[in-house]
Amino acid sequence: MRILSLLLGIGLVIMSGIALAGPEEDREAFVSYFEKRFPNTDLTEFANGAYALDEDARQQWQEIEEFAPYEFALDEGRELFEIPFGNGKRYADCFANGGIGISQDYPVFDTNSGEVVTLELAINRCRTANGEDPLPWMEGPIAAISGYMASTSRGKALNIKIPDDPRALAAYEDGKRYYYSRRGQLNFSCSGCHVQNAGMVIRADRLSPALGQTTHWPAHRGAWEGLGTLHRRYQECNKQVREIPLAAQSQTYRNLEYFMRFMDNGFPANGPAYRK
Q1: Fewer CB in a 10 Å sphere around the end CB: N or C, the chain?
Q2: What is the bridge-based pairing of β-strands 108-110 and 201-202?
Q3: CA 223 to CA 275: how far, in whole Å?
Q4: Which residue, 25, 17, 48, 26, is CA-closest to 269?
């Protein structure tokens, strides 16, 4: 009953179109829910997704990570990151600290454009600003470059900021609303699987908890046989509930990522990682 009461409390705060609490209060309630739901799970373990809750699956995952299947993609990403553009500039010229050890700060809210900018969006904007064609959003070179940049942030705490700007708060609220809204023919929400039913088994898969869920992206999924971006996963989830997916890097998906990454603030970045 305590868990049910807490969940209802989170729902009243988070699902409301009116911000009854600020983002930090939302995050604290989110963390508290999972701590109470899984009292025997160390908080930091939530960054490992379903493997924090399933010891057999965890052992298999750790064996896979010893010879990580995404290492070739990271090598490719580093090479692509360092190749100069046609004008002689590089990706490093577009980012703070030369693009090294900064992915834990993304997405960011750009007060000039008034929108959320993900790391992949920033990568493609860097390209177009230097006269290069943008890359496809969900896999291939952009996932390799983003994955390499993520790997340089391993161990750094996620640090997503919501500036004192009503547009930033509106973007956060939009992402939050989408996360808790039901959709598709199956009438599921993101929270239905990863908050209310976190840890439960559906078919042969254990549903990962929402807390810590964004720390390891881009991820190498066995089902994809390669590295893919978080927005690719968003599209896949929409398809699984029989909803027409949105375009990768659409405003709604970027706002969703903004909300989810903020919920994971303070967790160490640990991507890329392997997922089933």
Answers
A1: N
A2: unpaired
A3: 9
A4: 48
Catalytic one among 126, 190, 193, 237? 237
pLDDT tens, position by position, for the chain (276 residues)?
Answer: 444 444 444 554 444 444 457 999 999 999 999 999 999 999 999 999 999 999 999 999 999 999 999 999 999 999 999 999 999 999 999 999 999 999 999 999 999 999 999 999 999 999 999 999 999 999 999 999 999 999 999 999 999 999 999 999 999 999 999 999 999 999 999 999 999 999 999 887 899 999 999 999 999 999 999 999 999 999 999 999 999 999 999 999 999 999 999 999 999 999 999 998
Examine the residue annotation and report whether 237 is marked as an active-site residue of this protein: yes
Strand 205-206 versus strand 201-202 pairing type: antiparallel
Sign of the CA dihedral 258, 235, 53, 69?
negative
- Give per-residue burial for 73-84: e unless 16+ CB within 10 Å, then b: bbebbbebbeee
Q: How many structural domains are present in the chain?
A: 2
Helix and strand numbers (H, E) in the chain are: 10, 7
Pairing between strand 273-275 and 219-221? Answer: parallel
Same domain, 216 and 264: yes
Are 169 and 23 a contacting pair, CB within 8 Å?
yes
135 and 173 co-located in one domain: no
Please indicate, yes or no, whether the overall pTM of this predicted structure exceeds 0.85.
yes
